[in-house]
Design a protein that fits this description.
Elements: H1 2-35, E1 41-44, E2 48-49, E3 56-60, E4 62-66, E5 70-77, E6 88-95, E7 98-105, E8 118-124, E9 130-131, E10 148-150, E11 161-164, E12 176-180, E13 188-192, E14 198-200, E15 217-221, E16 226-234, E17 243-250, E18 260-261, E19 271-274, E20 277-280, E21 283-295, H2 303-309, E22 319-327, E23 357-358, E24 363-366, E25 369-376, E26 384-391, E27 396-400, E28 405-409, E29 412-414, E30 419-436, E31 457-462, E32 480-495
Parallel strand pairs: 1-29
Antiparallel strand pairs: 2-32, 3-28, 4-27, 5-26, 6-7, 7-8, 8-9, 8-10, 11-12, 12-13, 13-14, 15-16, 16-17, 17-18, 19-21, 20-21, 21-22, 23-25, 24-25, 25-26, 27-32, 28-32, 30-31, 30-32
Length: about 500
């Protein structure tokens, strides 16, 4: 009997303590909820793309969609005697009303960084029709009538990659900058006043801690207020593991920090032959990387088929395509999309090693159009450059099906009087916008029922509520945006 009473007493006490613990836990959680303020993303008046989940808190029956650029055909053939089948590592720059193209010209296969590699140049008024001017700087094959901007610069001309320095108060004679070189030489810095005549910034390399056996890209970052360089490394020592990317920074383009490896999150490692990382011209705080994905040993064409194509025997045992990555600074790439961004085209000539390598930079080629350029038919007599077109901001979108759905953003703070959308709908579709406070409550005047139904296809469409677009009362206030959509794509948003 005494034992039964003891057991009963213990049981009652245990239950009592359990209730007390639950109560304390609930109280603590309640207090925690009250004290924890959600992180607010300050977007100011910057254009924001939906290439990642940076602004997205919740998706309900909508998803992020990767869009495939449209092949617009050949724009440049590597048909000069100093160019040829192994021309590669292209850089396209939009310089006011002039498009500039830089690329390696080399007619034969061989070791990286050898005599016979030249930096070639072409230009265009529209990004579509290109010419190769006779620059008369270097004598090649017995003539000065050629389009070569840099020669007799072994290693550098293997992968010379220029950019326009947009840093405030940059020395005008150093407006154009470039890096080039291999692991043997290190990266050598060059400068130019006009983008045509180039000189070494200094004789010794500015950076040596990398393999560099690819195109190594650099630019001035306005958002980070420093020069950045994304360059070739491997995931393991020497040339083993996966071809990958590392990053270094500089304040003066001469002294560079210790490199850090780029982090791809929990995604599968892949060979990234070129990284082609650069600020997006409409949102330079977002760096777009249209990287070449290399699949070693993934053979598509037979030896007999390669012979018919006249492919160099060393260059038909692999294949490659292009993938889309983004980064907002630091050492992290976002790989929301593992699928191919640009697939190899129809025809076996597109399935050889080191073909389908994108050029550096996305450039605007029309009022509603931007372009990316891709090397094709590598190691073949038909080697050339293709142009691929996209709508402005049209890398990705938030897509809603015919059934409809919605997206709610993270808390954000903006600077502007009006909200503009880059969007498209079907004839049956729409986009509507509701503005919520931090707790998810509707803000009076900006409820969904007051939102104008947005229908059409525009790069910049003003949002209004009861025909009133004025957001001045919410300027600087932390809010959430709720997008209710049907059969529609939302590419970007901007307050201004």
């Amino acid at each position: 009997m005494l034992m039964k009473k003891s057991i009963l007493k213990i049981t009652v006490l245990s239950l009592l303590f359990g209730v007390i613990n639950i109560s304390i836990k609930a109280q603590n959680e309640s207090q925690l909820k009250q004290t924890v303020t959600p992180e607010i993303v300050d977007i100011g008046s910057k254009l924001e793309l939906f290439t990642d989940y940076y602004l997205i808190e919740n998706l309900d029956n909508v998803s992020l969609k990767l869009h495939e650029p449209i092949d617009k055909g050949t724009v440049l053939k590597f048909d000069k005697s100093w160019e040829g089948p192994f021309s590669a590592y292209c850089t396209v720059i939009k310089d006011n009303d002039l498009f500039r193209l830089y690329y390696r010209g080399v007619p034969t296969a061989g070791k990286d960084g050898r005599t016979g590699e030249h930096t070639c140049y072409a230009e265009s008024k529209d990004g579509i029709n290109w010419t190769k001017p006779d620059l008369k700087i270097y004598e090649i094959d017995g003539t000065l009538n050629n389009n070569i901007v840099l020669s007799n610069a072994v290693s550098v001309t293997h992968n010379f990659s220029p950019f326009i320095d947009t840093r405030k108060n940059v020395n005008p004679i150093q407006k154009y900058k470039a890096l080039g070189g291999t692991g043997k030489s290190g990266l050598i810095a060059y400068v130019s006043e006009n983008g045509i005549h180039w000189e070494k910034l200094q004789d010794k390399p500015v950076f040596t801690e990398g393999v560099f056996d690819s195109q190594n890209v650099s630019f001035w970052s306005e958002s980070e207020q420093q020069y950045l360089c994304y360059f070739r490394t491997w995931t393991e020592s020497g040339y083993s593991g996966f071809r990958s990317v590392s990053r270094t920074t500089s304040k003066d383009f001469i002294n560079w920090t210790k490199p850090i490896e780029m982090d791809f999150g929990d995604t599968q490692l892949e060979h990234l032959y070129t990284n082609q990382t650069s600020p997006y011209f409409r949102a330079p705080h977002i760096y777009i990387s249209v990287a070449a994905r290399f699949m070693p040993g993934r053979k598509v064409i037979s030896e007999e088929e390669a012979n018919k194509l006249n492919v160099n025997p060393k260059y038909f045992n692999d294949c490659s395509d292009a993938v889309l990555m983004t980064t907002r600074g630091g050492n992290k790439y976002d790989r929301t999309f593992m699928e191919s961004f640009i697939r190899p085209g129809i025809g076996l000539q597109n399935w050889v090693s080191r073909s389908n390598y994108p050029a550096l930079n996305i450039v605007q080629t029309g009022a509603e159009e931007m372009s990316v350029y891709v090397n094709q038919d590598y190691a073949q007599p038909s080697a050339h450059l293709h142009r691929y077109a996209m709508r402005i901001d049209g890398f990705t979108s938030v897509r809603a099906s015919y059934k409809g759905g919605e997206m709610i953003t993270k808390p954000l703070r903006f600077n502007g009087d009006k909200l503009y959308l880059n969007f498209s709908t079907s004839a049956a579709g729409f986009v509507k916008v509701e503005i919520l406070d931090l707790d998810g409550n509707k803000i009076k005047g900006f409820e969904l029922e007051n939102s104008s139904e947005i229908i059409g296809n525009e790069i910049e469409k003003e949002v209004s509520w009861n025909e009133n677009p004025d957001l001045r009362e919410l300027n600087g206030v932390a809010v959430r945006l709720r997008f209710v959509m049907k059969d529609a794509d939302l590419y970007s948003i901007k307050f201004k």
